[in-house]
Specification:
It is built from 4 helices and 11 strands, in the order E-E-E-E-E-H-E-E-H-E-H-E-E-H-E. By secondary structure, it is α/β, with parallel strands linked by helices. It has 2 domains: 95 residues, Elongation Factor Tu (Ef-tu), domain 3 (Beta Barrel); 130 residues, Nucleotide-binding domain of ferredoxin-NADP reductase (FNR) module (Rossmann fold, 3-Layer(aba) Sandwich). Strands 4-3-6-1-2-5 form a 6-stranded antiparallel β-sheet. A 5-stranded parallel β-sheet has the order 9-8-7-10-11, with helices on both faces. The chain binds flavin-adenine dinucleotide.
Length: 235
Amino acid sequence: MNPIKQIAGTVNKVRDLSPTAREYTIRPDNPFPFVAGTFVNLFVTHEGEVIRRAFSISSNDDNNLEFTLSIRLSPDGKLTPIMWSKNMIGEKVKIMGPLGLNTVDRIQSNKIFLFGFGIGAGVVKSLAEHIVNNRQELESLTIVTGNRSASEILHKDFFDNLAEKNEKVSVKYVVSDKKEPHGHPTGYIQEHINTYDFNDSDIYICGQSIACVDLEEKIKLTKPRNSHFLIEDFH
Ligand SMILES: Cc1cc2nc3c(=O)[nH]c(=O)nc-3n(C[C@H](O)[C@H](O)[C@H](O)COP(=O)(O)OP(=O)(O)OC[C@H]3O[C@@H](n4cnc5c(N)ncnc54)[C@H](O)[C@@H]3O)c2cc1C
């Protein structure tokens, strides 16, 4: 495990991922080793007040010179509206981390499911990249993300590319919007798991508590043998 550090850094880049999500690239002042699955506490100073929030790292853990955070706007929240309204490029921030227990080294099986609800797709991206690059014994990696609408599907190009280049990787985007035709499975992730065999697998689930709990319960109803759950809850 990498030691927890509290260091300064700078926001280097910001790009839109969807109408409500952005990717922030942070360059720490010193190398910042982390493993996929970890999160950081980000400290942003606004009008003299320091605001702290947790964000999962969404980039590849082979680069310790910079990392990305995939962040969704909470319109009624405190920090994210500030991040949306001000030009964050060049902003000095503090980072505490890496933190968290649901790291890629705890995913041991060669049959892996990664489920990401909403902005949880960010940490799934980091985990998937690590697994594909480092697990020669991999049998299958199944990635499923849950999204409010087709325009809110995050990191689609990245996941499509990963699946195209690796026959062991499959990806599915579930969209809850029932009004607009979008060509994706419709509803919640838990309504689209019937075809999966969860026996002897590691199952990683990330997102809001209520969604994580519901999906875990639905999977457990299938009575999988020798399956191991890792739940990263964005409470
Ligand atoms: C381990 C972990 C990892 C996370 N990773 C990510 C990530 O990768 N990406 C990401 O976008 N988010 C992530 N989060 C969530 C993130 O930390 C923030 O909570 C989120 O960005 C909202 O921050 P905010 O300051 O804008 O909103 P907040 O001020 O925290 O408010 C969030 C919501 O709660 C409501 N609220 C606030 N106070 C109250 C109250 N007293 N009563 C009722 N409702 C209230 C607000 O109206 C708003 O809708 C993670 C959280 C955890 C714990």
